[in-house]
Amino acid sequence: MKILLTGGTGYIGSHTAVELIQAGFEVEILDNLANSKIAVLDKIAKITGVKPKFYEVDLLDASATDKVLRDGRFDAVIHLAGLKAVGESVEKPLIYYKNNVCGTINLLESMKRNSVNKMIFSSSATVYGDKDGIKLTEDMETGIGITNPYGETKYVIEKILMDVANSNNDFEVTILRYFNPIGAHSSGLIGEDPNGIPNNLMPIIMKVATGEIPKLMIYGDDYNTPDGTGMRDYIHVVDLAKGHVKAVEKLKPGVEVYNLGTGEATSVKEIVKAFEDVAGKELPNEVVERRAGDLAKIYADCSKAERELGWSTELNIKDAMRDTINYLRHYEG
Ligand code: NAD
Ligand code: UFG
């Protein structure tokens, strides 16, 4: 089976490429390198022995996208390409809507023109909006209380995919709602390497560990959680990548939605402690005010993915910390 992976040089995309290649799929990558580096392709080759064909293409370029789909003769598309910085999306909403929504529409149009009817889409727990402290299941209402344009783009794209599936009985789409991906490949060759200043917890911890950022600001310790800090469902990126392999193997006509998380919530202080334990040194930190829009506790019910995809996580927070630290040791910039 031949797969086009959009966003495949990015953090989750590179790990997904590795797992797909190792599972025997033929993988080609489309990315505009807005938030990733071309050197990732050599790292994928080093891990798997296969260097995927690469198209440096922006999904906003409809004719270039169309040419990739026309020449590639793909069986399925795994669509991870998108901009993902929550704060930036508040400042530059039009760029986010244009890139994520219009990029997806261009891709869907090209898929239609070239008779590619199978798609996996990277969505996010953010579509559940302001539901706090309850295990989230796929059938819960979405779209209420989303606090930023990035989250809205995921919600809108999910709606578009559902409408496309409604209009075309041959269309097979699986929407994967990721919770909080962390960690890196055990080889230390690929991991999270964002351009610019990160705003997610683990990339910030990595920069504190390397001294690029003086200390971690813990956003609030007065939440209704056991230690007062925010709790999230942190999933090892390799487990997440394997979820894509299962999802593509189980594609069927219509729309399916799966949460990909662990079912467990971990607090910011627990993450800091786990990192310190594995690194063997203290991570400078300070508790500051809450961050606007944050919720106390977000975690997934993943029983549907377990039941229907035969997928569940194999790695834990300690594994993620070990692999992150190993990645930092190998990091070449
Ligand atoms: P990433 O930034 O590392 O990867 C995204 C890739 O898409 C980058 O390589 C970027 O260059 C590319 N891209 C962006 N716009 C493009 C365009 N118009 N044309 C072609 N390529 C384009 O991010 P990631 O963490 O690997 O996330 C992958 C997907 O998963 C994204 O859609 C993201 O929204 C989603 N997601 C991520 C998280 C997370 O916490 N990392 C959580 C939920 C969902
Ligand atoms: N946090 C800090 N200090 C920091 C950064 C984060 O204390 O410097 C805390 C946050 O307050 C939160 C936790 O660490 O309690 C996780 O924060 P992240 O920014 O890493 O992740 P979020 O859960 O806020 O958001 C992430 C992605 C979204 C996605 C969402 C899905 O950024 O795109 O997960 O749950 F939608």
Output the radius of gyration: 19 Å
Quaternary = single chain
Beta-strand share of residues: 15-25%
Bound molecules: nicotinamide-adenine-dinucleotide, uridine-5'-diphosphate-4-deoxy-4-fluoro-alpha-D-galactose
Biggest sheet features: 7 strands, parallel
User: Terminal Cα separation, in Å?
Assistant: 33 Å
Question: Looking at the structure, what is the overall shape?
Answer: globular
H-E string: EHEHEHEHHEEHEEHEEEHEEHEEHH
Low-confidence stretches at least 5 residues in length (pLDDT < 50)?
none
Alpha plus pi helix count: 11
Looking across the biggest beta sheet, what order are the strands in?
3-2-1-4-5-7-12
Structural class: alpha/beta
- Fraction of residues in helix: 25-40%
Total number of beta strands: 15
Overall average pLDDT:
97
Protein described:
The longest helix has 21 residues, at 93-113. The protein has 11 helices and 15 strands. With 333 residues, it is α/β, with parallel strands linked by helices. The model has no long low-confidence stretch (mean pLDDT 97). It starts with a strand and ends with a helix. The strands form 4 sheets. Strands 3-2-1-4-5-7-12 form a 7-stranded parallel beta sheet, with helices on both faces. Strands 6-15-10-13 form a 4-stranded mixed beta sheet. Nicotinamide-adenine-dinucleotide (NAD) binds at residues 7, 9-13, 31-36, 58-60, 80-84, 99, 103, 122, 124, 178, 180-181, 200.
